[in-house]
Predict the structure of MYO5B protein.
Amino acid sequence: FLRLLEAQLQDQRREHEEEVEALKNEVDAMKEELEKQQQAFLQTLQLPPEAQVEFGLQQEITRLTNENLDLKELVERLEKNERKLKKQLKIYMKKVQELEASQAMLPAEKRQYERNMEVAVQRKEKNFQGMLEYYKEDEPLLIRNLIM
């Protein structure tokens, strides 16, 4: 038990050190960005008023362009994810249709047996956690119930 706690403590320490290192890198990057902005600001103050306005506009255009590129990347990732999800949805819809078709072909006796099984399952409202045991022939019914 003590070794387990030591291992957990070491894992937490390692995670903490990695997080601290990442934060230090982020702070360093922010410091560099701040220094660049301060230098640009000092240079801007030395310019005549018309040049200051133009420089400010150039800075804003650069910022907006970078923001626009970031948003385009985000849109591309979201569109890619959307296409992936649509493909998955089509696959699942096809499986559901196949399952419904196979259920429609079942004899009336089997359907009545499954309805009785559903009622029995609905009456047993216990809080189960873990593995589920079932018969192979009940797999389509189980899948349909999970989907619904």
About this structure: Residues 49-104 form the longest helix (56 residues). Confidence is low (pLDDT under 50) at residues 119-124. DSSP finds four helices and no strands in the chain. Helices lie at 2-46, 49-104, 108-123, 139-147.
